[in-house]
Structure formats: C-alpha cells, structure tokens
Design goal:
Number of strands: 10
Bound molecules: FE2/S2 (inorganic) cluster
Shape: elongated
Distance between the termini: 31 Å
Order of helices and strands: HHHHHHHHEEEEEEEEEE
Radius of gyration: 24 Å
Number of helices: 8
Largest sheet: 4 strands, antiparallel
Strand order of the largest sheet: 5-6-7-8
Number of domains: 2
Length: 312
C-alpha cells in the first residue's frame, strides 16, 4: 500500500510536531531556570508528606504500581465525558456532576503525584512542575465553570470547561512524556535485568563473601557484564540486580533491616525497601519489586541466573 504525497506530508508534519514537543520538554528537563521555585516546593511537600505509611499509600507500594497514573484516569475521564455531554443538547446536570466528580478526584490524584514528584530526579521534577502548573490551572478553570453553571451562566461554564479540558489534556500528554520518555514510575530494575546474561553467572567462591553484608559483584564472563548485589547468609546467598527499581540506586551500598520478620534491603538513595527473599517493595518511593536472581552453589562457587521473564 502506498501513501499519497498529501498523506505523507501530514505524517511528516505530525512527526515533526511530536519531535518538537519532546525536544521542548527535554529542554525544560535540562534547564535549571525553575529550580529556585522547585527546591522550596519540594522541601514543603517532603515536610507535609513525610516518608511513612501515608506517603507509601500515595506512592502505590501496596499496589506494586505507581498510584498516580491509575488515579489520573478518573478526573480526566470525567472531564472528557463532561465535554462530550456539553456538546450535546440537554444533559446539563450530568455534565455538572461529571465536572464535580473530576474536581473531587483531582485532589487524591494530585497528592499521589506530589508524593512521587518529591522523590524524582531533577529532570523529572522540572517537567513535573510544568505538569502540576497546567493541572492546577485546569482545576481552577473547572471550579470557575462549576460556579458559572450554578449561577445559571451555562455558556460561560462551557467555555471555561473546554479551556480547562485543553489544559488538562496537554498536561496528560506531559505525564506520558514523564512516564515513557523520562521513565518516571518505570522499573529500573527490570531495565537493568534485560542487559544481563541469561546463562548461569559465576560470582566466585561463596566463602569469599562476608556474611550479612551487601557486596557488589561484577561478572564479565559473558558479553553482557553483570552488576549484582550479593548478600551472603550462611551457606546461601541472595543475589539482586544492583539497580533499585525506583531510579536505579546502587543496592549494594544499602543496609539490611528487618521488617515484620522479613530480611530487607534499604536503598541508599531514597530509602526504598525490598524483601530479600522475593524482591517485593515494602517501603516507597520504590513500588516495583527488585529483581531477585535464582542462585545455586556449585563446587563452592556461587552462581546466579536472571529470571526468564526478562529474556529478550
Ligand atoms: S533509587 Fe530511589 S529508592 Fe532507590
């Protein structure tokens, strides 16, 4: 099948447009212009949302997945539906109800986003700040729309709602950039695991490892060198990909702790905590599991193997 020159021109135009948006967002991520505002806001968020049970709920530790993108479906879906109803005759109460629902759902969505944002890397925080400003502006416009509707000014209410929908949709696109381009919320442990050999990796004599102390072992016995965090416990060992699922922190520099009878490893960067036995995240900001390797001891040498699910 061939494309007509006109259609090809449209495709190229769309490609150029998406590239320029992406480039603009990368420039924001690289620029320190917003930092004077970001730093005090980040400190305030971290004072209000201190590391602990509430912040972990907002991160989505209990879900094993970031909570913010899941919650964001509710306000955006409600507001888009309201926009559709506003374009049709009748449906006044239904559109108003959807806008109010979106406003109510935006509160926990923003809190979850703020929790993640406060623990992100600087580029994610810069782009995240733009995302937050657009969302806040959309929220103000939606509140104005609801107010106008309550006072009987439906045309004004509709105009405000459509302006808000434009801002909220643009902001959702920026959220997509944060997730897919800047890997906010993605598991950095899974990404690192894909680069490792899928054969048994030799980690040297088990007896050479100190007991109960996280150690870095770099194996280069294949064309895919492995950086692994190894923790010997008696005559066995836990072996994890040395990359924290949150932002790739070096797990071998972490410390061991006991949580609810489980031996856990605490990431040195932001305190994300993982159960050694299965890698499960039990404290945020990490939500995805650490990658735990299968182990065996052969002729006194420790060997480890990456789970098959990471094979490409
Ligand atoms: S890199 Fe953030 S908790 Fe590990």
């Amino acid at each position: 099948m061939t494309s007509s020159p006109t259609r090809l021109g449209c495709h190229l135009g769309a490609l150029r447009c998406s590239m320029s948006i992406s480039t603009a967002l990368d420039r924001i991520a690289d620029s320190g212009r917003l930092d004077a505002v970001i730093e005090p806001v980040r400190k305030t968020v971290n004072k209000v949302l201190r590391p602990g049970a509430v912040k972990d709920v907002l991160h989505g530790v209990w879900l094993g997945h970031p909570l913010h993108p899941a919650l964001a479906q509710v306000p955006l879906g409600a507001w888009m539906s309201a926009g559709l109803l506003d374009a049709l005759p009748g449906n006044r109460k239904e559109a108003d109800l959807l806008i109010a629902t979106g406003i109510a759902a935006a509160v926990p969505t923003a809190l979850a986003g703020a929790a993640d944002w406060s623990e992100g890397e600087i580029g994610q925080q810069r782009v995240g700040a733009v995302h937050a400003v657009l969302n806040s502006a959309a929220l103000v416009l939606y509140a104005g729309s609801l107010f106008a509707r309550a006072r009987g000014s439906r045309a004004r209410g509709r105009r405000l709602a459509y302006a808000a929908l434009g801002l909220a949709s643009s902001s959702a696109g920026i959220g997509g950039h944060l997730a897919y381009h800047q890997a906010a919320g993605a598991s950095h442990a899974a990404t690192a695991a894909r680069t490792l050999s899928h054969d048994w990796i030799d980690l040297g004599p088990l007896a050479d490892l100190p007991d109960g102390q996280p150690m870095l072992r770099v194996s280069d016995d294949s064309d895919r060198p492995a950086s692994l965090c190894v923790i010997r416990r008696g005559d066995m060992a836990h072996v994890l990909v040395d990359s924290c699922s949150h932002l790739g922190g070096p797990l071998h520099q972490g410390r061991l702790t006991d949580i609810g009878g489980n031996q856990c490893l605490v990431c040195p960067w932001h305190g994300g905590t993982f159960v050694l036995a299965d890698g499960r995240a039990v404290r945020g900001p990490a939500v995805a599991a650490a990658t735990v390797l299968q182990t065996r001891v052969s002729d006194g040498r420790l060997q480890a193997k990456v789970p098959e699910r990471h094979e490409v």
